[in-house]
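Q: I'm building a small set of examples for a reading group on sequence design. Run inverse folding on the following structure and report the sequence directly after it, with nothing in between.
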């Protein structure tokens, strides 16, 4: 509940700024770890789809119904999906290690229990006026030079918060459309109107849409945490770049 603390306490309680900084670092590390773990499922689904396609391709080549060139393309797709899967596993392990280090639990625990998914992103943004009121409250507690920096950081943080929320909404729409396309592709396949390759391609597309949606959720929660930190007088080294995807977005300097 650190985000609900009265901003005036920043100047009246010793070391409260350091406590809040540790809290925000832990929050962001937790978000990264959960997102990396959550992304493993669609990455695995994409790999399995390419494995099935490659196996079918090998069978068709063996009976002379396909060229070796076409099967090689499927083999390449499987290799790429496998590399993505290995990267995703490594990213999940690294994110968990980073969380344990941030929590000062290194040497005590090798892993921590994490939820299966990130919290649901709110459908509506907190009104800009509410954030601005909090910004005015903290800026009244800061020296002039710090107050000026906080004003600029508030605008950066608000921009990241609003843009990340818009990307979450867009990614949800993409996932919904991909689910519809996948369902229609299955129906067409059952009716012999599309090939097994169409079905496998769309399965990979759906998995990638899921990965992108998880990345958008992750970026939103990181942006929201940075905004909360700024409105407690903090100064992040950088703000999320909103790169999306399963891997952590690189920070954007400000």
């Amino acid at each position: 509940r650190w985000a609900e603390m009265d901003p005036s306490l920043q100047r009246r309680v010793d070391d409260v700024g350091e406590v809040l900084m540790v809290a925000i670092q832990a929050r962001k590390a937790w978000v990264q770890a959960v997102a990396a773990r959550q992304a493993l499922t669609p990455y695995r689904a994409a790999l399995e789809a390419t494995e099935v396609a490659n196996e079918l391709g090998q069978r068709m080549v063996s009976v002379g119904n396909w060229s070796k060139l076409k099967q090689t393309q499927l083999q390449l797709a499987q290799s790429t999906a496998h590399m993505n899967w290995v990267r995703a596993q490594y990213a999940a392990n690294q994110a968990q290690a980073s969380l344990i280090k941030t929590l000062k639990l290194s040497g005590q625990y090798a892993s921590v229990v994490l939820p299966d998914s990130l919290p649901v992103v709110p459908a509506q943004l907190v009104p800009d006026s509410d954030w601005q009121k909090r910004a005015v409250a903290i800026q009244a507690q800061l020296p002039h030079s710090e107050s000026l920096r906080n004003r600029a950081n508030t605008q950066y943080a608000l921009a990241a918060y609003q843009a990340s929320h818009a990307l979450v909404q867009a990614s949800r729409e993409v996932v919904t459309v991909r689910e519809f396309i996948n369902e229609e592709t299955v129906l067409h396949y059952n009716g012999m109107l599309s090939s097994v390759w169409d079905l496998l391609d769309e399965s990979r597309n759906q998995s990638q849409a899921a990965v992108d949606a998880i990345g958008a959720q992750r970026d939103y929660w990181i942006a929201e945490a940075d905004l909360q930190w700024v409105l407690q007088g903090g100064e992040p080294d950088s703000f999320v770049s909103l790169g999306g995807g399963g891997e952590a977005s690189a920070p954007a300097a400000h």
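The radius of gyration is 23 Å.
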